[in-house]
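Today's session is about reading a structure prediction critically. Students often jump straight to the picture, but the first step is always the sequence itself: look for stretches that repeat, for charged clusters, for runs of hydrophobic residues. Only then move on to the predicted structure, which in these notes is written as discrete structure tokens rather than atom positions. Here is the chain we will use throughout the hour.
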Amino acid sequence: MSEDNILIVDDVPANVRVLYEFLTQTGFKVRVAKDGYGALKTVEHARPDLILLDVMMPGIDGFEVCRCLKEKEDTRDIPVIFMTALADTLDKVKGFSLGAVDYITKPIQHEEVLARVSTHLSLRKLQKQLESEICVRKSMEDSLQQHAKELEKRNLELDAFARTVAHDLKNPLNGVIGFAEILLEECEEGTIVRKDIIEHIQWVMKAGVKMRNIVDALLLLAGVSKNVHFETAALDMGHIISQVIEHRLTQLFNYYRPQVILPEVWLVAQGYAPWVEEIWANYLSNALKYGGNPPKIELGASQEENQVRFWVRDNGQGLALEAQQQLFTPFTRLHKERAEGHGLGLSIVQQVAEKLGGSVGVESEEGKGSLFYFTLPN
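Below is the predicted structure for this chain, in token form.
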């Protein structure tokens, strides 16, 4: 049985009786109004799913009833089908202009009534379903937007807190490292100190440096991840690499004593020098730690369309394909047995390069070393 409610509005009892009996037997719930006033009053108390509305009625005609229904927000969406013996096209156009969805011409044919009523009820149901889905989607979008705003606020608060903590950590760490260096210098100047104590002091200094590097890496990663302001310029890549070797990786180069091959001339690319320095520092330190024994490191650059490809080649063990796919994942270290680290380096490299409009990658084969590269716009 259908749950659809139909309101018949007609002042001719014979027409009403025929329609009422047919629609009721078909399975619809049917109400009846004898004139326009009765129709408007009925609709106020019980919303029908569809209205069959006679045009010619005493008092107010069907056109006026339809106009009144369409003026009110809570009744304007009820489908109205006019019933009329009028054949004049102008009358039909007038009805459609007032918001009617269809016409049924008298004398009424049951099959035609059923077809038109069923069609417009189905269309109305689809319209309601679509409106409901739109409302649900709108509600979800509003909720997601509100959630996103709250997350953004929390992220800003967390970022501010993390930066404050990181900066506050650096001061005592620098103090620890500084005092450890002073103690070691005093030991080297002849102060009698047990060997194990010297080793403990060296361990303290090493741990302090490692912690400071982690803090610096986290601060850099946070800065790269955010939309911080930076200006790109033509890079003097030879100078950048010299700074990295002489000031940042001095101890590593002195320890591993690698063979380094540099190009005579560097291609010029656009970038932000402090961030690009971080890329080279990570690539070179990895080439030293995981290269051959002794390490052989070759640096170079090549032109690729509108980008310059910079690279570091080592003579290490090389990497399997599975290992290559994990390289740029944060907090991932593949050579835990070879050297210690916090696993942020290559993740930072990737974010820096992408932020500057470039990309990163690796070419490697087990037993044949690895080539790590990054690209920058030229």
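Discussion point for the tutorial: The chain has a mean pLDDT of 85.
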